[in-house]
């Protein structure tokens, strides 16, 4: 076993594809494949499962990754004794964009803006990708939101994947409309959700995010959670890339959007927010116990709770 072999396997695991990893490492695909097979033979274990979408670590492969990454980190630290300190990193993932998470991250960054050799990142990633990034140590933390109806499925999956779940609480799912929307003409200004005609939303376009991957979208999850309220589902759907585009369409048309409650600082006076009865998403912070916990996690957790408790919509876990 060599350091080269360790680096090749770690890179392939992080990318999730032998062909892509080979290009990144300036190797041929056959060369990288034979290197992995040779190491598997030497160790007497299978590191990867080959799938149509690429490669996935086996259980033994996950254990190997932890040790391999630790060996490479120690080696890099030894090689940098005479060079400037290695950059410290803190990486957060979000399954669904969250203004609470964004605000907490911004406050964390502001506390350390003058610290050298520190890189903090926050990214949106799909559910399966977030698991892979946690398991390979590329993310330190993931904020996860999902409907209560699939709670036990999530628990089972994360237990299988050795992911730790830290429950925060719940936020309601809302309909967001512009003021003056036709469905609000006869509503009570003090309580626009009272007697709101939810099924009538099928007659108006829904604005949602473009999904770059297969899987359960926010819209689909909400429809499953509120199927008794939306017996006919949703009609036309307009797909956009980010929140600014979504808000712009809602404010300028009769379209509506669906979403988890936002931080109070992100509310607009030009919109009306109507909670969907009995429809909430559960919030969790997810980490991998296979890697040492980043020193920034407790601080970010505290900042996030502070942001959430500013909203009357947030119900903390009991």
Description:
The chain has 318 residues and is α/β, with parallel strands linked by helices. The protein is 38% helix and 24% strand. The protein is built from 10 helices and 11 strands. Strands 3, 4, 5, 6, 7, 8, 9, 10 and 11 form a 9-stranded mixed beta sheet that branches. Strand 1 and strand 2 form a beta hairpin.
Task: Reconstruct the topology from this structure.
Blueprint: H1 3-15, H2 18-25, H3 29-43, E1 48-51, E2 54-57, H4 59-79, E3 88-94, H5 99-111, E4 118-124, H6 127-135, E5 141-147, H7 151-160, E6 164-178, E7 206-209, H8 218-225, E8 237-240, H9 243-252, E9 256-260, E10 271-287, H10 297-309, E11 315-316
Parallel strand pairs: 3-4, 3-5, 7-8, 7-9
Antiparallel strand pairs: 1-2, 5-10, 6-9, 6-10, 6-11
Helix pairs in contact: 1-2, 1-4, 2-3, 5-10
Ends apart, CA distance between termini: 50 Å
Low-confidence stretches: none
User: What is the radius of gyration computed over CA atoms, rounded to a whole number of angstroms?
Assistant: 23 Å
Class derived from helix and strand content: alpha/beta
Count of separate DSSP helical elements: 10
H-E string: HHHEEHEHEHEHEEHEHEEHE
Biggest β-sheet: count, sense, barrel?
9 strands, mixed
Name the helicity range.
25-40%
Look at the structure and give the mean pLDDT: 83
Overall form: elongated
């Amino acid at each position: 076993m060599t350091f080269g072999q360790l680096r090749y396997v770690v890179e392939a695991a992080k990318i999730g594809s032998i062909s892509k990893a080979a290009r990144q490492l300036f190797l041929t695909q056959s060369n990288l494949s034979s290197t992995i097979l040779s190491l598997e033979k030497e160790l007497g274990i299978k590191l990867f499962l080959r799938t149509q979408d690429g490669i996935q670590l086996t259980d033994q492969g996950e254990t190997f990754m932890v040790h391999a990454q630790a060996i490479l980190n120690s080696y890099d630290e030894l090689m940098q004794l005479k060079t400037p300190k290695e950059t410290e990193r803190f990486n957060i993932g979000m399954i669904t964009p969250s203004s609470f998470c964004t605000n907490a991250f911004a406050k964390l960054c502001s506390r350390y803006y003058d610290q050298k050799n520190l890189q903090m990142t926050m990214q949106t990633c799909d559910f399966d990708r977030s698991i892979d990034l946690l398991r390979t140590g590329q993310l330190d933390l993931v904020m996860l939101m999902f409907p209560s109806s699939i709670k036990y499925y999530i628990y089972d999956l994360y237990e299988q994947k050795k992911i730790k779940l830290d429950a925060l609480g719940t936020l309601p799912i809302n309909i967001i409309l512009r003021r003056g929307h036709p469905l609000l003409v006869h509503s009570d200004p003090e309580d626009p959700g009272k007697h709101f005609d939810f099924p009538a939303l099928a007659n108006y376009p829904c604005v949602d995010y473009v999904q770059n991957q297969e899987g359960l979208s926010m819209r689909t999850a909400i429809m499953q959670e509120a199927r008794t309220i939306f017996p006919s589902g949703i009609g036309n759907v307009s797909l956009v890339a980010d929140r600014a585009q979504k808000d712009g369409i809602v404010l300028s048309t009769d379209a509506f959007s669906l979403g988890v409650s936002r931080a109070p600082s992100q509310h607009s006076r030009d919109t009306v927010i109507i909670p969907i009865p009995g429809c909430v998403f559960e919030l969790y912070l997810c980490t991998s116990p296979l890697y040492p916990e980043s020193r920034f996690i407790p601080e970010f957790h505290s900042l996030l709770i502070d942001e959430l408790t500013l909203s009357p919509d947030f119900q903390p876990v009991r």
